[in-house]
């Protein structure tokens, strides 16, 4: 007969192993995919570019870039949770624009772990080998922001 305490012990050991796997810093644990690097380079010549990115509860802070300078961050997508989303505010002079800089369904295949963006005033351009694909800024539309889980006015620069 299996005693209750043995069952409890077995469950605690399993939980401990799972938690340990979850937190291990190796590049391949069972809950995370390969690390993704995002590089954001300013292609704006006549002004400093402010870049402020965040994921739901993870604010990466404001970073100022001169022309040609690059800001980068990395993260590890969690398995089963699609569309890891980092949204960014971009500011220069009196402008403030928004863009979702990492959307798994859009970027996973293209980037192969390294997403390189150049930021123009007209919008962000994704470098794909020798090609670039440029995107429009996100419309300044509160409804859309809410749909994406962005809270009202949380992305102030
Ligand atoms: C960077 O800016 C230059 C000058 O405006 C432009 O010709 C070039 O296409 C831009 N590069 C990218 C990747 O957007
Ligand atoms: C905002 O976005 C929603 C959904 O994308 C759209 O239906 C609506 O017309 C937009 N509003 C404005 C003012 O652009």
From TrEMBL:
It is found in: Secreted. Coiled coil: none annotated. Keywords: Secreted, Self-incompatibility, Signal. Transmembrane segments: none annotated. Residues 1-20 form the signal peptide. It comes from the Eukaryota. One of its GO terms (biological process) is rejection of self pollen. One of its GO terms (cellular component) is extracellular region. Its main location: secreted. Belongs to the plant self-incompatibility (S1) protein family. This is S-protein homolog. It comes from Medicago truncatula.
């Amino acid at each position: 007969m299996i005693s209750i305490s043995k069952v409890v012990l077995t469950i605690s050991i399993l939980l401990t192993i799972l938690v340990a796997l979850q937190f291990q810093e190796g590049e391949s644990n069972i809950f995370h995919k390969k690390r993704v690097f995002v590089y954001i380079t300013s292609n704006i010549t006549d002004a400093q570019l402010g870049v402020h990115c965040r994921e739901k509860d993870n604010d990466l802070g404001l970073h100022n870039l001169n022309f040609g300078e690059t800001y980068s961050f990395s993260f590890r997508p969690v398995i089963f949770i699609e569309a890891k989303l980092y949204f960014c505010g971009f500011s220069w002079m009196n402008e403030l624009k928004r863009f979702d800089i990492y959307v798994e369904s859009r970027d996973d295949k293209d980037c192969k772990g390294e997403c390189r963006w150049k930021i123009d005033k007209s919008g962000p351009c994704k470098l794909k080998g020798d090609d670039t694909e440029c995107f429009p800024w996100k419309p300044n539309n509160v409804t859309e922001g809410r749909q994406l889980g962005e809270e009202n006015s949380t992305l102030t620069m």
